[in-house]
């Protein structure tokens, strides 16, 4: 490098703060709260997951109810079959359907809570004070 | 003897209701105590309360009577009553709680930001509440007449007075305890006689009843064009979607501490209802064994109360009958107080408080207006019940469910899940649903008896009214994107974000 009369040599300045964390200083919860576009994407994802779960429970319900009715209409023998001392329609509609509904409800709640827990872990990790 | 025991049982139930209600009076200090019991009710207590409130005279007396009358096709009725909670659970339970609203009209306004829709919802809450209160009063009259011989208006009047006292006294906090206690009273009162009757039936050789084919086998039309499949399907739609729109059901969700608790409460409710609904078919089938035909003029609604007297001789039969009468009264009182509570809340908030404030220049705050509203909420359906006597309990309840399914189900489900719902769309769907369901009910009552498709479509309107209301709401919303509320996203954030996530702006402070 040539001496230019006391003027320091030019130095090319580049950013190389490799150790610096390029990241968001604000949690995603704020995005949700302030309805930024990013928050909107997350909200849409949560709603889609929950709605898909809800609709699958509903379609299972409709299928079960409609399927059983079709069975009764299409197969006359099913109307008079006796199981455990009760005719099949009475057994299913009078007894079996209640524990089945309860189990469905319980499964749904577990799934819905799992979706929410995963969402919460992404949006506001537990380490943060909340 | 039957009379004495029954009067004792009914008096006990009424006194318990007023006493527990009075207890709540001491605990009720704030407005939120009156409306939503301060939002501190645990899932178990709340589930008992919801079930206690939901199991009405129609469930305690009417379901067994209908199955006794019509057989296996009516087993769908208790199934629908229970499955309605599953639909409510998956579609609206947690978001409704997270909305932070007190009543259905509150939700409508919070979601759509329109006073007009709020007013519409308030009108419908009052209409559905009254429609559902009428059969409770009628059931009270029937039950008391059968066990004591008193004229029908006496039972109705007793229930009306007790309910008005209990609601006016302590509001929601007292009612919560009353309801929870009454679920267990009802279950015991229905289960114990059922087991005694079953045991006696088995000991006497398990006779099977002589029944027509249309009773024992599903989907057999009694007359040529009865359309039993359509009727059952439409009934299921009404019950599954109507449950979430019943005013006394949703107000209970606001008493949960958070959305997660609201879901867990519902699961317990499904279990409690399922346990209860195992019993009415037992009465219906045993009724067919012991009372193959009812004397003319005796309504099948009373089959539950008649059975013990037929089967068990002497004092045992009297005690069982008294137990059932007490249980029936508990059923009436709890549903009627829950309904009266929601109707009172809406009447007070929407119609009485604003007027009172204007009249007195804001001086008459406090709970005076609330008690006036409680009186109004009870007197009008009492009058209606005298006038509508000939219509069966379950028919009126069916119309209440259809109306709820055609109005609140679209509003709530689209409101919770669909961001493009506009004010115009919600209002249009709501009005179309209300008009269609009301017109069908009126036509059925006025032009009865109708047969064939016309009769089936009008008597069970939910299967066409509800899809109609949904499609009108969707089509009009898509056509009027300008009237989608601006803060839709903020409301959606509030409805769907779990409580664990801290939000500064989007949440309401309870």
Task: Please characterize this protein's 3D structure.
The complex is a heterodimer of chains A (130) and B (510). With 130 residues, chain A is mainly α. Chain A has one domain (28-123). Helices cover 66% and strands 3% of the residues of chain A. Chain A is built from 4 helices and 2 strands. Chain A has helices at residues 28-34, 37-74, 76-80, 88-123; strands at residues 82-83, 86-87. Chain A has a two-stranded antiparallel ribbon. In chain A, helix 2 packs antiparallel against helix 4. The mean pLDDT of chain A is 81. Chain B has 510 residues and is mainly alpha-helical. Chain B has one domain (2-390): Sodium/glucose cotransporter (Up-down Bundle). In chain B, 77% of the residues lie in helices and 0% in strands. Chain B has 22 helices and no strands. In chain B, helix 1 (2-27) packs parallel to helix 16, helix 9 packs across helix 17 and helix 18 runs parallel beside helix 21 (462-479). Chain B is globular, with a radius of gyration of 22 Å. The termini of chain B are far apart. In chain B, 62% of the residues are buried. The model of chain B has no long low-confidence stretch (mean pLDDT 81). Classes of the chains: A mainly alpha (130), B mainly alpha (510). At the A-B interface, helix 1, helix 2 and helix 4 of A face helix 5, helix 11, helix 13 and helix 22 of B. Chain A: The chain crosses the membrane at residues 53-75, 87-105. Chain A: Keywords: Membrane, Transmembrane, Transmembrane helix. Chain B: Keywords: Cell membrane, Membrane, Symport, Transmembrane, Transmembrane helix, Transport. Chain B: It holds the Pfam family SSF. Chain B: It is found in: Cell membrane. Chain B: The chain crosses the membrane at residues 6-25, 45-68, 74-94, 115-133, 153-171, 183-202, 233-254, 266-286, 319-343, 364-384, 390-414, 426-449, 461-484.
């Amino acid at each position: 490098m040539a001496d230019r009369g006391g003027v320091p040599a030019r130095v090319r300045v580049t950013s190389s703060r490799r150790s610096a964390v390029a990241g968001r200083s604000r949690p995603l919860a704020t995005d949700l709260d302030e309805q930024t576009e990013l928050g909107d994407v997350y909200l849409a994802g949560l709603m889609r997951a929950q709605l898909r779960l809800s609709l699958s429970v509903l379609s299972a319900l409709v299928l079960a109810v409609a399927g059983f009715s079709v069975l009764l209409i299409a197969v006359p023998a099913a109307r008079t079959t006796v199981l455990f001392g009760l005719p099949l329609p009475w057994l299913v509609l009078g007894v079996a359907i209640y524990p089945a509904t309860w189990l469905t409800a319980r499964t749904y709640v577990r799934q819905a809570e799992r979706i929410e827990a995963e969402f919460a872990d992404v949006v506001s990790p537990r380490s943060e004070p909340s | 003897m039957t009379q004495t025991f029954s009067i004792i049982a009914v008096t006990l139930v009424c006194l318990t209701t007023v006493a527990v209600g009075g207890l709540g009076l001491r605990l009720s200090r704030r407005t939120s105590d009156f409306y939503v019991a301060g939002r501190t009710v645990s899932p178990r207590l709340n589930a008992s309360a919801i079930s206690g409130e939901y199991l009405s005279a129609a469930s305690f007396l009417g379901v067994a009577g209908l199955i006794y009358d019509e057989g296996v096709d009516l087993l769908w009725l208790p199934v629908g009553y229970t499955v309605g909670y599953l639909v409510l659970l998956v579609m609206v339970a947690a978001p409704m709680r997270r909305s932070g609203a007190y009543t259905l009209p509150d939700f409508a306004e919070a979601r759509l930001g329109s006073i007009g829709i709020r007013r519409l919802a308030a009108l419908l809450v009052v209409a559905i509440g009254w429609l559902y209160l009428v059969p409770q009063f009628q059931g009270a009259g029937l039950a008391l007449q059968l066990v004591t011989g008193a004229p029908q208006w006496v039972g109705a009047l007793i229930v009306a007075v007790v309910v008005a006292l209990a609601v006016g006294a302590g509001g929601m906090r007292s009612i919560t305890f009353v309801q929870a206690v009454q679920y267990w009273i009802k279950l015991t009162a229905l289960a114990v006689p059922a087991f005694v009757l079953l045991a006696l039936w088995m000991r006497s050789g398990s006779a099977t009843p002589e029944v027509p084919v249309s009773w024992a086998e599903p989907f057999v039309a009694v007359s040529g064009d009865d359309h039993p499949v359509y009727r059952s399907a439409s009934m299921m739609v009404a019950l599954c979607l109507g449950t979430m729109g019943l005013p006394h059901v949703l107000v209970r969700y606001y008493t949960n501490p958070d959305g997660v608790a609201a879901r867990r409460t519902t699961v317990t409710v499904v279990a409690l209802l399922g346990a209860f609904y195992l019993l009415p078919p037992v009465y219906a089938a045993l009724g067919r064994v012991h009372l193959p035909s009812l004397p003319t003029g005796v309504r099948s609604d009373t089959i539950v109360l008649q059975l013990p007297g037929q089967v068990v001789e002497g004092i045992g039969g009297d005690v069982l009958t008294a137990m059932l009468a007490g249980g029936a009264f508990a059923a009436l009182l709890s549903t009627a107080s829950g309904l009266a509570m929601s109707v009172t809340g809406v009447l007070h908030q929407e119609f009485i408080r604003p007027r009172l404030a204007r009249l007195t220049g804001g001086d008459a705050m406090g709970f005076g207006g609330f008690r006036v509203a409680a009186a109004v909420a009870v007197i009008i359906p009492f009058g209606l019940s005298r006038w509508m006597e000939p219509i069966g309990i379950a028919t009126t309840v069916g119309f209440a469910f259809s109306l709820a399914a055609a109005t609140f189900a679209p509003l709530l489900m689209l409101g919770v899940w669909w961001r493009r719902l506009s004010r115009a769309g919600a209002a249009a769907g709501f009005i179309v649903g209300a008009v269609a369901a009301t017109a069908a009910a009126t036509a059925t009552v006025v032009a009865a008896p109708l047969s064939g498709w016309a009769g089936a479509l009008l008597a069970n309107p939910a299967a066409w009214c509800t899809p109609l209301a949904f499609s009108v709401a969707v089509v009009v919303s898509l056509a009027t994107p300008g009237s989608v509320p601006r803060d839709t996203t903020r409301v959606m954030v509030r409805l769907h974000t779990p409580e664990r996530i801290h939000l500064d702006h989007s949440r309401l402070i309870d």
